Amino acid sequence: MSQTEVSRMKPPPIPLATLIGRELRTEKVEKPFVKYGQAALAKKGEDYFLVKPDCQRIPGNQSTSYSVFAIFDGHNGISAAIFAKENLLSNVLSAIPSGISREEWLQALPRALVAGFVKTDIEFQQKGETSGTTVTFVVIDGWTVTVASVGDSRCILDTQGGVVSLLTVDHRLEENVEERERVTASGGEVGRLNVFGGSEVGPLRCWPGGLCLSRSIGDTDVGEFIVPIPHVKQVKLSNAGGRLIIASDGIWDALSSDVAAKSCRGLPAELAAKLVVKDALRSRGLKDDTTCLVVDIIPSDRPVLPPSPRKKQNVLTSLLFGKKSQNSSNKAANKLSAVGAVEELFEEGSAMLAERLGKDLSSDRNSGLFRCAVCQVDHPPGDGLSVNSGPFFSPASNPWEGPFLCANCRRKKDAMEGKRPGRPTLTT
């Protein structure tokens, strides 16, 4: 048979649109299972967690389901942790436009998380209480995982390739140089606790207040340079699935990310969470509240996640396939999906609100009102400025560029950036 005849027998190429349509339909059919487990030991009773596995973008439509898991590690009391647990999710959802597609919803989620965190912080501070809380907040929609965090609770991802990835950033002043510089630039002081005799002890803290963290919800008595603006990371798993371990610092002060992940591989989520807490207790003792959530994102054709295969130590195999493996890692930058691979969709950790709320100016043409990008309340144009406008009395101000902020949220933004009201600067 000639080459020409063989070519004629081949099926015609499939249009790209058809391939994309098939992929989308397949993704809907193969939506993963989400299974979870929880375990905790209390020392001070300030840890709280949220588990909502059956949320729906469109009420009554099961195909729009998503899950939310969160840990709130309170300090100086429990009121901030309880308030965030009860209000943060609704504040995040209020910042997402209605009537949009799933893809648009996922794209809007990182910005909505920022707005929701800041709104929750403003509302709690209006109560006049002084406690604070860390937050690690996880949204799972299909294979897409979005994590927002302030403080030092942590979320890690363990994929089927045995690679452990950190989806959060620790906001401890001791470990984060950028946050130390930001706090001091905003008017705070960073130093250790001074004891009798002038010697310094303990971790780096922010003064006034003595907090070891640079970001949290609450902490009214510390200073506005302790900001509620979260680090946000969004990733898409391959159809091999993966395991999330979300835990308070009582776990991470005792176990590294790799040790925690390896210790519970191959176990169901419920047993895995208990084992992680047990190992942390064995390693360090019960010195702090210790809370752990284990969430498995499982392909629909598998009852549980299989244990990750051990890496082979065969030298010949390494020589033969080492270069191929290196090429594969380079291709990951091109967002190609592989078994156990993770595609990074979004990551941003800036503490500057103007960099986190996008560039859209939300307004109602019929009413002439502008909607605040943080509190989601409609206001007349004269009641606020855009997020990108400069300080009052500044000729460099651009009052209508970017999202609108009401006067109250604008004051919050200025305070977080270290700008003090009542001190206009004159420029020549």
Short description:
The protein is of the alpha+beta class. The chain has helices spanning 3-9, 16-29, 79-94, 102-125, 177-185, 249-252, 257-263, 269-284, 315-331, 407-416, and strands spanning 33-41, 47-56, 65-75, 132-141, 144-150, 154-159, 164-166, 189-194, 200-207, 217-218, 231-237, 242-247, 290-298, 342-348, 363-364, 369-371, 378-379, 384-386, 404-406.
Detailed description of the structure:
The protein is of the alpha+beta class and 428 residues long. The protein folds into two domains: 33-172 and 215-306 and 336-348, Phosphatase 2c, domain 1 (4-Layer Sandwich); 353-416, no CATH class. 29% of the residues lie in helices and 27% in strands. It has ten helices and 19 strands. The protein has helices spanning 3-9, 16-29, 79-94, 102-125, 177-185, 249-252, 257-263, 269-284, 315-331, 407-416, and strands at 33-41, 47-56, 65-75, 132-141, 144-150, 154-159, 164-166, 189-194, 200-207, 217-218, 231-237, 242-247, 290-298, 342-348, 363-364, 369-371, 378-379, 384-386, 404-406. The strands form five sheets. Strands 2, 3, 4, 5, 10, 11 and 14 form a seven-stranded antiparallel beta sheet that branches. The chain has a five-stranded antiparallel beta sheet with strand order 1-13-12-6-7. Keywords: Hydrolase, Magnesium, Manganese, Metal-binding, Protein phosphatase. Residues 25-297 form the PPM-type phosphatase domain. InterPro entries: PP2C (IPR015655), PPM-type-like_dom_sf (IPR036457), PPM-type_phosphatase-like_dom (IPR001932). Belongs to the PP2C family.
